Amino acid sequence: MLYLKAIVSGICFGLWPLFMNKSGLNSAEASAALSLFLLAVVSPFLLVNGIPQFSVVKWQMAVPACVFDALGLLALNSLLANASSEQVGSAFVIVTVVQVAIPAAYLAVLAGGLTLRSAIGLVAAVVAVYLLR
C-alpha cells in the first residue's frame, strides 16, 4: 500500500504542473489558487482525522518545511508561468531530478557517507537530465 501511495503521489505531482502551465496564471496567482484549492480539498480530511494538539507539533521542523514549500511553489509556478509548452517538460525533468537528489543525499548522510552505488545513481540522474531535456 505504501508503494501504491508513492505511485499515485508521483502521478499527481507529475501532472499538476503540466496543467498549471496551461492555466494562464502567473506565479503568485497560481500559488494562491493552488493553496486555496489545496486547503479546500485537505480540510475535510483534517476534520475526519482530528486536529493535532499543537503543543506536540515540532514547530522548529514544521515552519522551515512550510517556508521551503512556499518558496519552492513560487519558484515552480514562476517557471510554469514563463515556460513554453516545449520548455516545461525539460525544466520539470530538472526539477524532479533535483528533488530526488535531495533525499538521496540525505540517505547518504544517514548511512555515514556516499557509497559507490549512491554516487553512480546521482551521476546517472545527471545523465538522465541531460538525455531527457
Describe the structure.
- Helices cover 83% and strands 0% of the residues.
- With 133 residues, the protein is mostly helical.
- It has two domains: 82 residues, no CATH class; 49 residues, no CATH class.
- Helix 1 packs across helix 3 and helix 2 crosses helix 3.
- It starts with a helix and ends with a helix.
- The mean pLDDT is 89.
H/E element order: HHHHH
Radius of gyration from the CA trace?
Answer: 17 Å
The total count of strands amounts to 0
- Structural class estimated from helices and strands: mainly alpha
Any low-confidence stretches, pLDDT <50, length ≥5? none
Total helix count? 5
What's the structural domain tally?
A: 2
What oligomeric state do the depicted chains represent? single chain
Mean pLDDT: 89
Shape: globular
- What share of the residues does DSSP label as strand, in percent? under 5%
**Ends apart, CA distance between termini:** 32 Å
Share of helix among residues?
over 70%
The biggest sheet, with number of strands, parallel, antiparallel or mixed sense and barrel status, is: none
